[in-house]
Amino acid sequence: SKIGGVWSIEKDPVKIDIAPGTTIHDLDPVLGDIPNFDDDDIGKIVKTPRSNQYRFVESAGYAGLRTNVPEQLMCFSDEKDWGVDIKQRIDQHYVKVDAVRDYVERYFNRHPRDHIVFRTSLENVSKDYSKPDSKFVLTLRRETDEKDSDGNLIDEWFQEEFDALVIATGHYHVPVIPKVKGLELIHGKYPEKIVHSKYFKPNVDTYDDEVVIVVGGRISGMDIVTALSKTSKTVYHSKKTIPEVKQKNQGFENIIEKPIIKEIKLDDEGKILVYFGDGSIVENPDRFIYATGYHLSFPFMNNSYPNFTNGTILPDFFEHTIYSKDPLISIVGIPIQAITFRVFEFQAIWVARFLAGKIQLPSLEEQNRWILARYQTFKNTPAYHSFQEEKFEWPNYITRIAGGVEPLNGVGKKFPIYTQNDKDVHAEVIKKYAEEHHFFLDPTKQYF
To answer: What is the dihedral of CA 185, 188, 194, 195, to 10 degrees?
Structure first.
């Protein structure tokens, strides 16, 4: 209903129960009862009562959320300043969630908004590949405030045709709670004990005097551990350990690092026993918080493109962007551990140049060679779409295959250029973060 994506936070978000190991097909299936349309029904409107199926539309953002990428790197290249006053800043580099939302709003407002449609979701995509020059038929659902005679809210359904489809829906919507041996027993008996980080709100969920196990070693996990250390009795932080590096406890002795959980048991008396990879056991924790990321989920593609995603990776997208099976489908916003929003800008310029007919894509053979090599290296893991080692190399490659920095034929947007100062700022921030959050047992080694 508004601009801002994950940065437009909800005042009172819905919390739902996520069972361990649940797949996207169970959590976020195609919406049921999609009306049937005939070939000549483009523009026709069909009204139905609104479905009760949960859609994961709430933002994962929360009050107190802040950026963790320096301003000069995170902002779009043509507006490198958040444009906010000192009250919305954390320091010279970082700002609070509202500042980013306002920035996105201003960025959109530079252009007419008549192409932005609110309260409307894409529910199905189809294309008749047996016919040349066939268009994509999109089945859309628009929410209204109208009610039927029984008091049910009404949705309007309609179809539109398009030459190309760019998916930019993000991927912080459908939570992942992994399958861990025995965790389903805890969920079955004590579902309230298992929480995903999407539904954890700092300064609200304090878990006073509780024993909490936080699972996940990335930013969300570390933020939650730090927040809970001020109020909880003991916080066990379970994560994949980094050799010879120990996380600092932020001055709180109640944070205890643990490796991954191997198994969870319920004894005959109903006591919870958590077995970690180092052989240690924690008895009767009050809460498990899983900061374990999100599924990739695009239910509107399921009917026509059943192998579009398995929830962890997009297996047929060249350079995380171009659908090798139909290059008129592209996706922007999938890379993780990248420099957002800037990496999305590189993707968008590349896609725009291709759709405008200004460039050719690498051959299908080359695309498939990249896809196969990527899978052989990273398999079906989140690392497949990670830019941890490619933050600056990938943009240079995309700029090169998309015709260079400058607009082609003098029309369009130029690619951003990372300066040496940008790279120095990035290195400085990474080093500072590492030093603030970790003890280095061997200071002569480069851990980050």
So the answer is: 140
- Residue 377 is classified by DSSP as H
Per-residue pLDDT reduced to its tens digit, 272-318: 999 999 999 999 999 999 999 999 999 999 999 999 999 999 999 99
**Residue 412 contacts residue 402 (beta carbons within 8 Å):** no
Return the percentage of the chain with pLDDT > 70, whole number: 95
Q: Yes or no: say if 310 and 380 are a contact pair by the CB < 8 Å rule.
A: yes
Instruction: Please check the confidence at residue 262 and state whether its pLDDT lies above 60.
Output: yes
Average pLDDT over residues 20-40: 92
Please name which of 196, 223, 227 lies closest in space to residue 291, comparing C-alpha atoms: 196
On the CB side of 395, how many CA atoms lie within 13 Å of its CA?
A: 23
**Angstrom distances, CA of residue 413 to CA of 128, 228, 290, 348, 402:** 33, 45, 40, 10, 12
pTM over 0.70: yes
- In order, the DSSP letters of 85-96 are -GGGBSSSS-BB
CA angle 120, 126, 128 (to 5 degrees): 150
d(CA 41, CA 241): 57
CB 299 within 8 A of CB 307: no
Dihedral through CA 9, CA 14, CA 15, CA 19, nearest 10? -110
